[in-house]
TrEMBL record, chains A, B:
Pfam families assigned to the protein according to its UniProt record, in alphabetical order: NUDIX, WHD_NrtR
Residue span(s) of domain Nudix hydrolase: 15-145
Superkingdom of origin: Bacteria
InterPro entries noted in UniProt: NUDIX_hydrolase-like_dom_sf, NUDIX_hydrolase_dom, WH-like_DNA-bd_sf, WH_DNA-bd_sf, WHD_NrtR
The protein's name: NUDIX domain-containing protein
Organism annotation: Leeuwenhoekiella polynyae
Parts forming coiled coils: none
Lineage: Bacteria, Pseudomonadati, Bacteroidota, Flavobacteriia, Flavobacteriales
Amino acid sequence: MNNLSSAEKKATLESITIDCVIFGFKAGNLEVLLVRHGEGISKDKWGLPGGWIYKTESTDDAANRLLLELTGIKDIYLEQLRAFSDPDRFPLSRVITIGYYALIKEEDYDLKAGATAAEVAWFKVSQVKDLIYDHAQILEIGLKRLRRRIKQEPIGFNLLPQKFTLLQLMHLYEEILGKEMDKPNFRRKILKMNLLTPLNEKEKDVSHRAAKLYQFNPETYQQLLEKGFNFEF
Amino acid sequence: MNNLSSAEKKATLESITIDCVIFGFKAGNLEVLLVRHGEGISKDKWGLPGGWIYKTESTDDAANRLLLELTGIKDIYLEQLRAFSDPDRFPLSRVITIGYYALIKEEDYDLKAGATAAEVAWFKVSQVKDLIYDHAQILEIGLKRLRRRIKQEPIGFNLLPQKFTLLQLMHLYEEILGKEMDKPNFRRKILKMNLLTPLNEKEKDVSHRAAKLYQFNPETYQQLLEKGFNFEF
DNA sequence: TTCCTTATAGTTTATTTGACTACAAGTATA
DNA sequence: TATACTTGTAGTCAAATAAACTATAAGGAA
């Protein structure tokens, strides 16, 4: 499938689209990235970033391209959620959409609404409402996946700044899993995993005892990934 | 999307198909259901049961229909794996396929090759080779999912006969996870979960001490599902 | 200096694992 | 009939883990 003209390359598949659930974390809140559409039947309504797939690209590539085009975000790890295929999910025709999701540090990316998007913004997950089509369902499945995943893989670190305190990390878990935890126990368990590298630095500008800062250690992460582990706190 | 003629109902989507990975378990071996195609470009080659999706049905419905048409198996719980979207996966045109998987008791179903299938049969997973298109990859992903799932949900019971011994169950785990286990410890752990109902029956026609038979208890299963659990043995 | 908040260390008890040993209940065979 | 053999089932024990706490340290703020 090479040697195609530019127009041919941009030919899209008819009945399949992509939609992305992008999670971020700020000020103790789990957030999701939404776009207000600038054209089409969903004009001026908020929904997940997504769109049509070129005939020449994989869905993984399509997800990355669409996200860049719509929001300015690029080079992130998008994982497939699943296909959403209710025959009536899209009002104009029969369209199956493939959901993707990702976790990113909000601070690392500048949002920039692309050509077909009127606006891009982060919304607290707990306050999202009135999404187009079945996007609420896709978000819900994304959230479920995130909750399951965070208990089995240390993916939470993708949501925090480079340097963070143990309490920030614990709050992230509390927010995502929706339950309170015990500080000393959390400390002990997470430190024993050797997943965090302590830094010779402390928090600044806090009105109480400053906590030590830590960094995520990608090497131990790889080892843990292979032998499997349990993050149930 | 109602009030359509029969021909309209059978119109299919152009670039999407379904493929099913159906696992069974017999004589200590994990098996997978394959069909030898009777027509099309994959005629006479073995592959996963699958096919085209009607415009009026969800992918879940399509998976069930196709499985029935091709193999005679119906009313089973099929779970979606994910979409497979390599632009070159299908030689004739750009087609994305959505994988499904299921676990069934082989004894409960009679195989019957449908109109477009020349033959249907169970194959030991360890001995499968030369599947059409990217079906080997789909099978592999299905197997990975099975291994992950069986550690977190008591799905293994779908593969055993109604009444089974603890050793049979342990062998199932050993086969799927590919590692040996300790009998007494396995007993203790699985029994404590209250997931099995002991029967007043024993094995028959065995040339050694007969083991007690157990049954799966769907009620406790529901409870366990909700609060989550860990089947790591 | 005292109070308040958060960080961090440590204790205690119950529970869970993993690696074993021991014995029971059958069948096969000598 | 006795003995060996195979598999089932019960129990032991030490080590690791988890959950619920208590206690103390380190700051800033009043």
